[in-house]
Amino acid sequence: MILVLLGPPGAGKGTQATRLSEVFGLEHLSSGDVLRAERKSGTDLGQRVASYMDAGELVPDEIIIEVILARVLKAAEGSGVLLDGFPRTAAQAQKLDESLEAAGGGVDLVVSLVVPDEPIVARITGRRSCPTCGSVYHIASLPPKAEGVCDKDGTALVQRSDDTEEVVAQRLAAYHAQTEPLEAYYREQGLLAEVDGTQDIDAVFVQSREVVRSRVGKVGS
Length: 221
Ligand code: AMP
What we know:
Blueprint (H helix, E strand, L loop, with lengths): L1 E5 L6 H12 L2 E4 H11 L2 H12 L5 H17 L3 E4 L5 H13 L6 E6 L5 H6 L1 E3 L6 E3 L26 H15 L1 H8 L3 E5 L4 H20 L1
Parallel strand pairs: 1-3, 1-4, 2-3, 4-7
Antiparallel strand pairs: 5-6
Helix pairs in contact: 1-9, 2-3, 4-5
């Protein structure tokens, strides 16, 4: 199964992707995580993408396609993949479709987490993550058991450098201009399922899981 999670920054894609990929046995592929790992390792690629990420802009399509597509195709050969943060532009979505078609497959379902702009800034600026295991917390809605420390491995939590108020505005602008049109693209293909992302985390998860389950049933029948 190839599942795509769409939604603005701060919609909860990462949190839901972790849970959904566990339940459905999918590989969780986060383009943002891949890019952050490249930056952390100081690779050429990491250096090439840093300025875009810090400014809240999308990395150019040719770079992201080169980096992510091969991983998607590899994961698609296995038990399936949940795409979190890719595709994010029409060009990326078209390229993904072409490549999957050439391999005899296609996207099975797109779950769009719908969240209006207003709560996004508070959601993002309160976000903290573990640099060791990648677990994501929120200082108000999903706090760790001990303040500032990861529940799983005790590492001190950090704030992403692009999770500041100034950068969020740019990331939202990029989302509306470049990513939101993908909803129409997938709706036309009959692949879009919308989930109200303003509900609490468990409710969003249950609704997303049921939407995927009903789809998997259809795929299998
Ligand atoms: P995320 O962790 O998904 O919020 O991504 C963080 C940043 O990585 C984004 O603001 C972009 O600069 C970059 N990025 C991640 N995925 C993509 C993508 N599919 N296309 C372009 N840029 C991306």
